[in-house]
Amino acid sequence: MSEDFYCDEVLCGKTPVEKVFETENVLAFHHTRPFWPIHIVVIPKIHVASLLTIDDNELLIELIEVVRNVAAKVIDENGAARVLTNLGEYQDSKHLHFHVNAGDQVRR
C-alpha cells in the first residue's frame, strides 16, 4: 500500500469509489476493502497527514460536519454507528481519514 492511498489512488481517480457524500473540500465513500458490513471513509480532498497535523479549522469543521451527517444516516439505517480515526503506527494511509462503520467486523 502506498503511503497515501487517498491522494495517490482515490482523489486522482486511479481507484474508483462509490461516493456517499461530497462537498467542495470533503469526500465520503464506501471503503474499497471493507472491514465492517457498513464501512464508509471520510477524507479531506487535500493532503492532511493526520488529525494531529491539521491546521485549517474551517476544513476540520467541514470534515466533522460530513462525518456527523454520514454517521447520522448510518444510525438511521442500522441503529448504531462507530466513528474512528487512526494515528501513528495504526494509521496505514498517511492521509487524515475517518471510518464510519456499523456491524460486526468482517476481516482483520
Protein architecture, described:
The protein has helices at 5-10, 57-78; strands at 19-22, 26-30, 38-44, 82-84, 98-102. It is α+β, with helices and mostly antiparallel strands. Helix content is 26%, strand content 22%. The protein has one domain (5-102): 2-Layer Sandwich (HIT family, subunit A). It has a five-stranded antiparallel beta sheet with strand order 1-2-3-5-4, covered by helices on one side.
Query: Mind telling me which CATH architecture this is?
Result: 2-Layer Sandwich
Strand proportion:
15-25%
Q: Describe the main β-sheet briefly.
A: 5 strands, antiparallel
User: Under CATH, the topology is which?
Assistant: HIT family, subunit A
Total strands: the figure is 5
Class from helix and strand fractions: alpha+beta
Count of the separate structural domains: 1
Which SSEs are present, and which pair or pack?
Blueprint: H1 5-10, E1 19-22, E2 26-30, E3 38-44, H2 57-78, E4 82-84, E5 98-102
Antiparallel strand pairs: 1-2, 2-3, 3-5, 4-5
Summarize the structure.
This protein is an alpha+beta fold and about 110 residues long. Helices cover about 25% and strands about 20% of the residues.
